[in-house]
UniProtKB/TrEMBL annotation:
InterPro entries: Snf7_fam. GO terms for cellular component: multivesicular body. The keyword Zinc does not apply. Keywords: Coiled coil. Residues 20-31 have a biased composition (Basic and acidic residues). It comes from Mikania micrantha. This is Charged multivesicular body protein 5. GO terms for biological process: late endosome to vacuole transport via multivesicular body sorting pathway; vesicle budding from membrane. It comes from the Eukaryota.
């Protein structure tokens, strides 16, 4: 059977855009190298034409230069064609990448949309509004409780500014009367310093005068009742 109908050959997968672009770029680089080589030959022929005199030799050099120039023009045409192909491939590749990005974006949006719909089923706006209303009511009740706990006991709340100023004036007058009745205390007066000598019953300090002596039992005593100290003469006299 294989000999009659043959074997089905596996199809080679088509090249991708990147592979085709790389292949064309390599061909373009090869053509650029050939063009550079031909430019070098043309520069040599140009120098030879300047050095040779007009005649058969110069015409032969010009003929060779003309042939090289035709080859250069042919390679330049090929290079331009390859550049155009590369440009077209780049445009197609850019469009293909854009479509892939769009597909991924759509897939991500679809997945996010599905998740949001599932989340929206569990969250209802009416429930949120009711919850907010309940929270506001609880806050008002809490404020009322705090105000109730912070009230003062037996403190009148109907005191105005005139009552306050009258109370202060009366208080100032009362304080002035008390000060005039009591006067300055004795311990604050400058002439009322206590006499500590009288309290301790101590003798006064000597003022430089001789203390009169007295006799008792044929002994001379001073005011304190002690015998006087005998005086010695200087030099044993």
């Amino acid at each position: 059977m294989k000999k009659v109908f043959g074997v089905k050959k596996d199809k080679t997968p088509p090249p991708s855009l990147n592979e085709a672009s790389d292949r064309i770029n390599k061909r373009g680089e090869s053509v650029d190298e050939k063009i550079k080589r031909l430019d070098g030959e043309l520069a040599k022929y140009k120098e030879q034409i300047k050095r040779t005199r007009p005649g058969p030799a110069q015409e032969a050099v010009k003929a060779r230069a003309m042939r090289v120039l035709k080859q250069k023009r042919m390679y330049e045409g090929q290079r331009d064609m390859l550049y155009n192909q590369t440009f077209n491939l780049d445009q197609v590749a850019f469009a293909s990448e854009g479509l892939k990005d769009a597909q991924q974006t759509m897939s991500a949006l679809k997945s996010a949309n599905k998740e949001l719909k599932g989340m929206m089923k569990t969250v209802k706006i009416q429930e949120i509004d009711n919850l907010q209303d309940d929270m506001m009511d609880l806050m008002e009740v809490s404020n009322e409780i705090q105000e109730s706990l912070g009230r003062n006991y037996n403190v009148p709340d109907d005191i105005d500014e005139e009552d306050l100023m009258g109370e202060l004036d009366a208080l100032e007058a009362d304080m002035g009367l008390e000060t005039e009745g009591e006067g300055v205390p004795s311990y604050l007066q400058p002439d009322s310093e206590p006499d500590y000598n009288d309290e301790l019953n101590l003798p006064s300090a000597p003022n430089g005068h001789a203390v009169p002596a007295r006799k008792a039992n044929n002994h001379v005593e001073d005011e304190l009742g002690l015998p006087p100290v005998p005086r010695t003469r200087l030099g044993g006299l």
